[in-house]
Amino acid sequence: MQAVASVRKPLVTNGKTVHDVTEDICSRVEQKPTKTWMVAFTFALALLIVGGYAVYRTVWDGIGMWGLNKTVGWAWDITNFVWWVGIGHAGTLISAILLLFRQKWRMSINRAAEAMTIFAVICALMFPILHMGRPWLGMYWAIPLPNTFGSLWVNFNSPLLWDFFAISTYFSVSLVFWYIGLIPDFATIRDRATGPIAKAVYGALSFAWDGAAKTWSRYESVALILAGLATPLVLSVHTIVSFDFATSVIPGWHTTIFPPYFVAGAIFSGFAMVLTLLLVTRKVYKLEDYITIEHIELMNIVIIITGSIVGVAYITELFIAWYSGVEYEQYAFINRVSGPYWWAYASMMTCNVISPQLFWFKKIRTNLASTFVLSIVVNIGMWFERFVIIVTSIHRDYLPSSWAMFYPTRYDVGMYMFSFGFFFTAFLLFAKYFPVINIAEVKSIIISDSEKAKK
Amino acid sequence: MKENTKIYWKGIEQLKNDPEFVKNADKEFPEYLPISENENGNSRRDFLKLMGFGVAAVSLAACEAPIRKAIPYLNKPVDVDPSVANYYASTYINGSDYCSVVVKTREGRPIKIEGNKLSKFSGGGTTAQVEASVLSLYDKQRLQNPMKSGAAVTWDALDAEVKSKLGEIAAAGGQIKIVTHSIVSPSTKKAIAKFIAAYPSTQVITYDASSYSGALNANLSSFGIRALPSYNFNKSKTTVSFGADFLGTWLNPVAFSKQFAETRKLGPKKKEMSRLYSFESNLSLTGANADYRSPIRPSEVGLYVGNLYNLIAAKAGAPAISVAKVDDTATLTKAANDLWASKGSSIVVSGENDISVQTVVNAINNLLGNYGSTLSWDAPVMTKQGDDAMMDVFVTDLSQGLVSGVIFFNCNPVYDHPKGAVIGSSLAKAKFTLSTSDRVDETTSQVTYVAPDNHYLESWNDAEPAKGQYSLSQPAISNIFNTRQAQQSFLTWGNVSTSYLDFIKENWKETHFASQTEIADFQTFWDQCLYNGVFEGDATSTMSAVEFSGDVNAAGTKIAGKYKKGTGLELVTYESIAIGAGEQANNPWLQEMPDPLSKVCWENYISMSQSTANELGIEMKEGFTTKVNVKAGIGTVTLPVVVQPGQAAGTVGLALGYGRTKAGKVADGVGVNAFALLSSNSEGIVYSVAGVTIEPTGESYRIAQTQTHQTFMGRETVIQEATLAEYKADASAGRYKPMISSYSGPKKPNAVSLWKGHEYNNHHWGMVIDLNSCTGCAACSVACQVENNIPVVGKEEVVNRREMAWLRIDRYYSSQGNKEDKSMEGLSMLEKASENPEVTFQPMMCQQCNNAPCETVCPVAATTHSTEGLNQMTYNRCIGTRYCANNCPFKVRRFNWFKYHDNRQFPDNTAMNNELGKMVLNPDVVVRARGVMEKCSFCVQRIQTGKLNAKKQGRRPVDGEISTACATACPTEAIVFGDMKDSNSRISQLLRLSATEEGDTEVKEERAYNVLEEIGVKPNVWYFTKIRNKELTDNQA
């Protein structure tokens, strides 16, 4: 038990005891699925199946099913990719960086946030694979594997290859980090399990956790080491994703501000997504005592900060375009603001820069409904940000003869639905079968006494 | 030490000297070991060897794709070597269009048409239609048998019936008519004469879909010759055209483009160029290339010509004619002054099918003394012979039942004549109807007998496009279907038993062979002519002394009498550059070729000016437009609108050649037939309709357009242009020279680089494109499509902006804005094209950048740089991330969104989706799979062939020996390809390459520029500035 100054508000409210924590969280795993869960799961599966048809048609017939054309070679595919990668930033940031900074409030949200990260990164990885003309070859040709094609090797100059390294590293570290954290909790569930299947499965999942002091000590060391490893990755992944654009010659892409701007945007959207999911989970699983208004407020503050960084980046871009004196750069930004896609730019500005400013008001940032709405608004805005960067830059670049519009087809929408279907299906399965809050860690921050426990 | 004499035996066998032991004593292992060879030769090693071989063989066999349908030659033809191309000189004749060509065949299949450089008449270039004609050979919709009443019959049966029917009619003295387009072939005419000899009541009715009857009749009355003079635009310093699109479709555009371009080329030694005025209603290719263009109504053409006559007459001291004044006198006066200043080296030309207008045009040329210099009667052009009046009489006779027998010789008047509907409904009145058409077209479907003709690539023929200039056609493939050459049919029906080949030979022996003295042996002469494709005898003619004797006053009075003011909206039809008059409408390459001006393909449309569109409340944006009901003359049609800058106010345009109903699967139902809206009378076909009403239907429509943005936004790095006066003062006028700031002061963009650059030790291929001589005719883009197996994607996919063209021609209009003003308002003005714009054409293909942005971003290194400066695309390695296309500043990369070959969803891609169509594919170029990127390769297959040929002969490739398909097709030689390492090559000369002190090469030519120079990608394609022979430097951007 760590000493906490009595003036600090408790992070877990309502005087929960250690036993209450175990009960509250394990019972969700042990009970039969609720009706709400079943409905949500059916909905998620339906999304997955409907979207799956779009995936099938794309793989079977070709990328032509989408709305891309000779001028706009990337649109929803890479927009979705960057968007999902961005969302996948919050989890590791919360667990790794906040762990290093000893922010204890993270303890009740990190599990779900990390799960979200894992699923979001899988969703993101879907797009670079499915957007390829020949994914059945590209899936492994883009990896530097020894091969029988002669001296063929990958092109280390290509940012797409850097992406592959950045994201696969991030994904594996995040996965390991998340899983290590789960082991003691799996052991708790294993110990409480009554059915033979549950015993076997959770037994296997918990890697024979014995709860010994030495084990705990190792566990904490590993967590710290992984946090140290994951921290630079949080910053590097989106930096490298931004290189896809920053290293190109296309006005609107070729921008040195992209790395920090993308990282801020990623944290921004990641926190928004964590909020969206947690507000629902908290309500459905009655976890109000664990995920308190204070948590929500703190996350909203992160959103104001990152949202403002993003806003400054947008304005800097406009300024630099003007200041550069480069005609194409200037046109790219005039076109963003006033061209045929002005509405996308306006949506982005409204959702990302203006709406988070509402969180300056304490009433708004501590209100569940407004937080929920704004968290979704932020993610809409961040999707538009990527759409604006990708599509409005290439749809009118250097030679006006090639200028064209991009109109999405139902298959573009279907692909996006598929990623949502996967995300929700995976998250719901996680929420049902895995402990959504880190039992072991939360126990370390409750203020309790033995008297209470005896009751 | 005592010597050791002990012997240690290996065993008792040694002691006993056992013979078995002695035999094996030397061996390392005297006894049997299982690892060594045994008696039957099977050892462990053998087993391993066999297993290794077996595994390797099995895996090799598994790697090899099965070979399907490769049929080896049992007896190899002497001159056919697999993978080596053969070339045959021949002649393209379609309708009354002519071009002398060279046919490239591979393993007996014609796969490419190129121009014949030996031809005086066509000058070695081609047009889009000529390039595409090779696919028409493999058109599955061609008739495969002779037919009677819709059922296949044998030739013998058909001949017997035809002969007996014709015999009956002739015996009864019934009228037999052979309806035909202009016949360019003298031997064909003779064959028909044989036919007429057998059936004396036969008459030949000649008409042309785009009629020159008015001009021919005017020449008959002015000079006594019913022909067109030969035009020498290369000698013309001032050319004035009244609606004659001589660079696009009029008379002989291939040669005229070449001649015109000669007068437009500039260089250090030539600082003069011709000036072109155009007065026209639709923006034509000629108008787009004009220095001064005046949009006029079709009803006013006569007045403008008359006014020009009066202006010239005033200078020449000739009496004026009485015609009303016209609006744009400024341009006309300027034109008159220029014409007068370049007397004797100018041309006035009109496309009007009207004898009075053409007579006045002749009179103007006569006053200017152009006959004998720019216009010559030495070798009159014979390709147009149609007589509208005769055709009109024929239609009347036919409808009155006076005609007993009709033979349609390769023509389709039910479709392409204004009175087609009457012809169609009256055909039943004739006892005998026959067509030689190659397909069941609109006319053929209404006749009893069909004797399908061969394709020109399957035929023997000769031609006389101009007096004294002859050419030969030879088959490049044997008949694909059970067809027979129409000339052979005429001979057969005319009871002549010789083959048409012998007939031609006989004819040539009597005439051309006899007329020359160089070659004594006929066979040698014939082989020589066949090899050359052309025979151009002595140009001496007795006709040069003709005097003008036309009645200008009568013509003027007639023009004045005809003119009615306030005729409302006028519809002007024109021949489309892609489809022509519709003969080759079933050719998907032509259907998908965007119109050079509007960039629309796969349909025809009503073109109107922005002001007319505003009046009608029609808006056009990004290809979205509205359909309108057009009531013109007797018909009403529904068509989409295209807002066309340069369209004369009060007029709308409509292309001929579309709206075929029975041309084949590709063409049927594409567009609307404009011929049906026209009228024809004894004076000729009128190609415009007055009093047209247009009502928007409100039906929104998306048109297939390959370029939707009209202007170049004042981007001087893309289009660099100047006026001639500016150029004379400074050869680098109009050049945009960006500088890059660096720590050591401003530097040229190419001097700053992150890259080390490539070293080219052997060749360094490059290309020069002269924007001044490019007319925008699109022959290059179709040639590229043919050469490189580029798929046709169909209308829907063009609407989706996914056409696959490796070479496109960017067309930019000048805008209403000021290029200096790049504010938000300024930019929106720059987006708007001028009402009567200046036009620039810019052929755009892969720029083969030395610092290629596509190469760095490919994750799998599928696009790499060659040692000869090419940016190469490895299709097999491509995984289709499209990053390269996004990062291409020129947007020249094309992605295979779908599988375009062997896919029923792309029926229009006939060259890849049926067994017959596939014969046209170039075997040297791979057909790309779905999901891979492709782009211009600088015709790398041609480079390799050229290098290989040189290597086999142990020499360096000679300049000109290796050329790309686009450069070869270009009639104006605007595209020049070559090795920049060869200091004597044309490209090195044009660029005036010279070595710098640092060992680099420097381009000394002031007009040469790279598009987007400042981004430092260092293209290997150079453009030469566009120079306009204009006096005004107005602020057009």
Describe, in plain words, how this protein is organized in 3D.
The complex is a heterodimer of chains A (455) and B (1037). Chain A is mostly helical. Chain A has one domain (18-145, 153-450): Formate dehydrogenase/DMSO reductase fold (Up-down Bundle). Chain A contains 18 helices and no strands. In chain A, helix 5 crosses helix 10 (258-284) and helix 11 crosses helix 12 (327-338). The longest helix of chain A is centred in the middle third of the chain and has 34 residues, at 159-192. Chain A is globular, with a radius of gyration of 23 Å. The model of chain A has no long low-confidence stretch (mean pLDDT 91). The radius of gyration of chain B is 34 Å and the shape is globular. By secondary structure, chain B is of the alpha/beta class. Among the domains of chain B are: 1-64; 86-137; 215-379, 3-Layer(aba) Sandwich (Dimethylsulfoxide Reductase, domain 2); 564-702, Barwin-like endoglucanases, CATH 2.40.40.20. In chain B, a hairpin with a 2-residue loop joins strand 17 and strand 18. Chain B has a seven-stranded mixed β-sheet, with helices on both faces. Chain B is built from 31 helices and 41 strands. The chains are: A mainly alpha (455), B alpha/beta (1037). At the A-B interface, helix 6, helix 7 and helix 12 of A face strand 30, helix 26, helix 27 and strand 34 of B.
